[in-house]
């Protein structure tokens, strides 16, 4: 089973079989058209094929971190009400330490996950793509064990 970001080495092997040459020629043509593999000495091998990443994982990062991925979301949508001066519901979301009071690493039942998901009391407070932001928080807590940094 492939994880959220899987790198599969795809070595270029030329075969003596007729279909092997055709496949290699097609691959080389695709690489030349897209500019992949250009570098000193031409094509590099193995060429990684990345599966996963995308919008749900900013920058295709191999992991999610609070500082890089979650804090910007909370700063933009949550801390106006959940800060050191005005901790609505006694929840302060300004620092990693204070956020971790609402998180149990690895648990989808963590308070932060529950309230920010669709149907949760804070879901409507997300700006922009609510579902993507809620999913990012859930993935950070559950899949990436609520790491402080990537």
Label this structure with key terms.
2 strands, two-stranded antiparallel ribbon, 150 residues, mainly alpha
Outline of the structure:
The chain is mostly helical.
Q: How would you describe this protein?
A:
With 150 residues, the chain is mainly alpha-helical. It folds into 2 domains: 48 residues, no CATH class; 84 residues, no CATH class. It is 35% helix and 8% strand. The protein has a two-stranded antiparallel sheet with strand order 1-2. The longest helix is centred in the N-terminal third of the chain and has 17 residues. The protein is globular. The two termini are 23 Å apart. About 35% of the residues have low confidence.
Topology (elements, then pairings):
Blueprint: E1 5-10, H1 18-34, E2 47-52, H2 66-77, H3 96-99, H4 111-116, H5 130-142
Antiparallel strand pairs: 1-2
Radius of gyration: 22 Å
Number of domains: 2
Q: Which structural class fits the helix and strand makeup?
A: mainly alpha
Global mean pLDDT:
74
Largest sheet: 2 strands, antiparallel
Query: Care to count the β-strands?
Result: 2
* Bulk shape: globular
Number of helical regions: 5
Helix % is: 25-40%
Distance between the ends? 23 Å
What's the SSE pattern?
EHEHHHH
Strand content: 5-15%
Query: Main sheet: which strands, in order across?
Result: 1-2
In the predicted model, the low-confidence regions spanning at least 5 consecutive residues are 5-57
